[in-house]
From TrEMBL:
Its cofactor is FAD. Keywords: FAD, Flavoprotein. It comes from the Bacteria. InterPro entries: GMC_OxRdtase, GMC_OxRdtase_N, GMC_OxRtase_C. The keyword Flavoprotein applies. The keyword S-adenosyl-L-methionine does not apply. It comes from Pseudonocardia oceani. This is GMC family oxidoreductase N-terminal domain-containing protein. Residues 258-272 form the Glucose-methanol-choline oxidoreductase N-terminal domain.
Length: 511
């Protein structure tokens, strides 16, 4: 996979993940420039846990995972939470749970209303459509013939089918397609998989153009610093097999290293809160206070767990197959909760220690998709040590919504479709008082692995990039990945990140 670095390119893209693969492909198509992609990881082809949808959890903590952690707080019972990030071409899009959902119209209209001009739902819709090859074909909302094949899971597992049946009998509308502009209800999930094999921006966007005469992909190459001279970013320093190298960019450098590593690179290059940089021994180049701030993450509860009455069939699809979007409070304008029924006992280590987990078990796992809590990340020194603090559950509103989510999960479990599968509930325990459920939520909350917002787009003082994704105060440098989301989408973050990269390429091509 590694090609040799010519030392210069018109566009240097840092990070070959969900966004980076889109960017490389679209820059080739939309411009006449040369493109060089630097990726710290390697080629995912041949890694079974990447290609087989039902094995995705085995990617967590594997050799192709960066293995970050979220620092502990009392809000999550003092626990250090593992933060998985794919370190491989396709990035976290090669290792994730394959859920392909866009979120709610209000997410994007909210971005635009807060100053991100051009990112309202109507404006981003064409980029979502461009990206996908939806099994039902093209419509006003959906795209066909795009690089990433999207399908509903086939042969629903009994646990997945029960979520739909239980949701409908509970009162949720049936959603045949969860990617409508205002999803609220229960139905089959959309996954980036086809014929039992993962699809991704790696398989759909980048892999087909390997060998293009204007493309160089350098794997095993970890960017360490941006070269910034006279207010302009002119290149990137990186390490390849331990050897230092520099590539210069004739037109632009585009950061697509994800919501942890893009801000990290800016900080290491002296772009960030000047006071923080001085404190950790990095000379400030530009005082940009928002870098690393505004970190947002979805908590998922692992989980409301049940011993199954009869032996469950082996897990299939993405271990989920179906999903529900629902409100913790009926007065909310937008659903703030997502429920999945996971075909294995996906529980936090602390829940497992407290409530022994039977082998033949499954969970209903609620996730909070509209979060009030905000975190941050910063360097611990000039060599790149990181402190990442999402402040998960710091805001009472988040705890309250998750307590409601457990109550809704228990109501779903009481519906006939689940009742016939369940022998007994194993977690939470008998005590379902509010105090007991708050305690359970703090022990069960795990990251959904959806960090965003650390290089937020906008026009306010805390914004890192402007609505054209240009780093404010540095020429020749943009960020185009999950880190630019001003607020987290009310659903999983992969499809929105691919959309961001599709739009970024259009903006770059427009000059
Ligand atoms: C286990 C897991 C499950 C998830 N499940 C889902 C899901 O089901 N649905 C969903 O929508 N979202 C899911 N997500 C989140 C989703 O995958 C991410 O939001 C999305 O991939 C973010 O895209 P990105 O391009 O910003 O970052 P990434 O895809 O993480 O890409 C960043 C890339 O940059 C590379 N990189 C980082 N630093 C450097 C450096 N210094 N030099 C060179 N390269 C570098 C990385 O190796 C990586 O390839 C999950 C994530 C994980 C980890």
């Amino acid at each position: 996979m590694t090609s040799s670095d010519p030392g210069t390119a018109d566009y240097v893209v840092v990070g070959g993940g969900t966004a980076g693969c889109v960017l490389a492909r679209r820059l080739l198509e939309r411009t006449d420039g040369t493109v060089l992609l630097l990726e710290a990881g390697g080629d995912p082809d041949g890694i079974d846990t990447v290609s087989a949808p039902h094995r995705w959890v085995e990617n967590i903590g594997a050799a192709h995972d960066w293995g970050y952690t979220y620092a502990p707080t009392g809000h999550v019972a003092g626990r250090t939470l593992f933060l998985s990030r794919g370190k491989v071409l396709g990035g976290s899009g090669s290792t994730n749970a394959l859920v392909w959902v866009r979120g709610h119209r209000a997410d994007y209209d909210g971005w635009a209303a807060a100053g991100a001009r051009g990112w309202d739902h109507a404006s981003v819709l064409p980029h979502f459509r461009d990206c996908e090859d939806w099994e039902d074909g093209a419509s006003e909302q959906r795209g066909a013939g795009g690089p990433v094949r999207i399908e509903r899971p086939r042969d629903l597992h009994p646990v997945a089918a029960a979520l739909v049946e239980a949701g409908v009998s509970y009162g949720m509308p049936y959603l045949d397609d969860v990617n409508v502009p205002e999803p609220c209800g229960v139905g089959p999930i959309n996954t980036d998989a086809s014929g039992g094999v993962r699809t991704s921006t790696w398989t759909g966007h980048l892999r087909p153009v390997l060998g293009h005469e204007r493309l160089t992909v350098v794997t095993g190459a970890r960017a360490t610093r941006l070269v910034i001279t006279g207010g302009r970013c002119t290149g990137v320093e990186y390490l390849r097999d331990g050897a230092p190298a520099t590539v210069s960019a004739g037109r632009e450098v585009v950061l697509a290293a994800g919501a942890i590593d893009s801000p990290k690179l800016l900080l290491l290059s002296g772009v960030g809160p000047a006071e923080h940089l001085r404190a950790v021994g990095v000379d400030p180049v530009l005082d940009l206070p928002g870098v690393g701030r505004n970190l947002q993450e979805h908590p998922i509860l692992g989980g409301v767990c049940f011993a199954a009455r009869e032996a469950l069939p082996p897990p299939n699809n993405n271990l989920e197959g179906t999903t529900a979007f629902w409100r913790s409070d009926p007065s909310l304008a937008v659903p703030d909760l997502q429920f999945v029924a996971v075909q294995i006992p996906y529980v936090s280590p602390e829940v497992a220690a407290r409530f022994p987990v039977p082998e033949n078990a499954f969970v209903i796992a609620p996730g909070l998709m509209t979060v009030a809590s905000r975190g941050f990340l910063g360097l611990t020194g000039p060599d790149g040590g990181l402190h990442v603090q999402p402040n998960m559950l710091a805001e009472q509103a988040d705890v309250d919504a998750l307590v409601s989510s457990v109550e809704i999960a228990l109501d779903l479990a009481a519906q006939p479709a689940f009742a016939k599968l369940v022998e007994r509930r194993t977690a939470p325990g008998e005590d379902t008082s509010r105090a007991a459920l708050v305690d359970f939520v703090r022990q069960a909350a795990m990251p959904y692995f959806h960090p965003v917002g650390t290089c937020a787009m906008g026009v306010h003082d805390g914004a890192v990039v402007d609505p054209d994704l240009r780093v404010r105060g540095v020429d020749g440098l943009r960020v185009a990945d999950a880190s630019v989301m001003p607020t987290i989408t009310s659903a999983n973050t992969n499809a929105p990140t691919a959309m961001i990269a599709e739009r970024a390429a259009a903006l770059i091509a427009a000059g």
